[in-house]
Amino acid sequence: MTLHVELAIPEGEIWAGSAELVIAKTLDGDIGVLSGHAPVIGILAEGSLVQIRPEGSAGSDVFAAVSGGFFSVADNNVSILARQAQLGREVDAVVARSALDDALEAAGPVSTAEEPADVRYYRALLRAAEQGS
Predict the structure, then answer these.
(1) End-to-end Cα spacing for the chain
(2) Which member of 9, 48, 53, 70 has the greatest number of CB atoms within 10 A?
(3) Strand partners for 80
(4) What is the C-alpha to C-alpha distance for residues 108 and 120, in angstroms, rounded to an integer?
(5) The predicted structure's pLDDT at residue 45
(6) Could you give phi then psi for residue 97, rounded to 5 degrees?
(7) Beta-ladder partners of 42
(8) Could you give the CA distance from residue 66 to residue 83 in angstroms, rounded to a whole number?
(9) How far apart are CA 12 and CA 8, in angstroms?
(10) Domains and CATH numbers, the chain
(11) What is the C-alpha to C-alpha distance for residues 120 and 113, in angstroms, rounded to an integer?
(12) pTM (2 decimals)?
C-alpha cells in the first residue's frame, strides 16, 4: 500500500502522486509518514522543507520549500496546503539568493529565531535547491 500525496498552493497543485514516505516539519516537530499512518493534522513550520519519496523512486526524493500552511494525513492520503511552495528542482538559486539578500537587508539586524517569514522561506528555497539538484 502507498500514500497518495498532494502538495498545493492557492494558485494550484505543485506535485501529486504516489509516495512511499513524506517528511514535513510542523510547529510540533518533524513528522514522517508511511502507509497506514494514523490521522493527523499539523501546521507547517514557516520556511521549512517537505520531503517526498515517490513510489519506486530509488533515492530521487522530491524536496519542496514551503512557507507555512497545513499538513494532514487520513486514510493513506497526505495533503500539504502551503501559502507558498516551490519544488527544489525548479528553484533558480541565483534569484533566491538575491531575494534573500534583499529581505535580510530590509529586516535589519535580527536573530535567526526572529527572522521574518519571507527570510525563512528564501532560506528554505536555497536548501530545497541544494537537495533537489
Answers:
(1) 29
(2) 48
(3) 7, 71
(4) 14
(5) 96
(6) -65, -45
(7) 71
(8) 7
(9) 6
(10) 1-133 (2.60.15.10)
(11) 10
(12) 0.90
